Amino acid sequence: MSNTPHTLEEEFPGQMEQIHALKISDPIFADLLREYDVVNDKIHLAETNVAPVSQDHETTLRKQRLAIKDRIALTLRGA
Predict the structure, then answer these.
(1) What percentage of the chain exceeds 90 in pLDDT?
(2) How many C-beta neighbours within 10 Å does residue 65 have?
(3) What is the mean pLDDT of residues 51-58?
(4) What is the mean pLDDT of residues 24-35?
(5) Sequence-separated contacts (24+) of 52-60 with Cβ below 8 Å
(6) Phi and psi based region of residue 5 (left: phi greater than 0; alpha: psi -120 to 50; beta: remaining)
(7) What Gene3D superfamilies does this protein's entry cite (predicted)?
């Protein structure tokens, strides 16, 4: 397992200006970004054993992160 954080800049290269603009103009999108950061931080803490969790819980968190990332991508495509 990788313990490299999945930052939004890494996940959406070249789209940070669009992400920032949407974050400012769309409160629902801003909440989505915050949710991504919270889940991503939990995964990173679990991977580095700072805050270990069960393998099942870590898998659930990864699925959450992927679903949020998909929603972010969908919003970016629609903007």
Answers:
(1) 91
(2) 19
(3) 95
(4) 98
(5) none
(6) beta
(7) 6.10.280.50
b/e 28-62 (16+ beta carbons within 10 angstroms → b): ebeebbebbeebbebbbebbeeeeebeeeebeebb
Summary mean pLDDT of the chain: 94
For the beta carbon of residue 68, count every other beta carbon within 10 angstroms. 18
Whole-Å CA distances, 5 to 8, 15, 25, 63: 9, 18, 26, 15
Which two structure tokens, joined as six digits, stand for 31? Answer: 């909440």
Q: Is the pLDDT of residue 1 over 90?
A: no
* Distance (Å, whole) CA 65 – CA 71: 10
Could you tell me which of 30, 36, 57, 42 has the C-alpha nearest to residue 3? 42
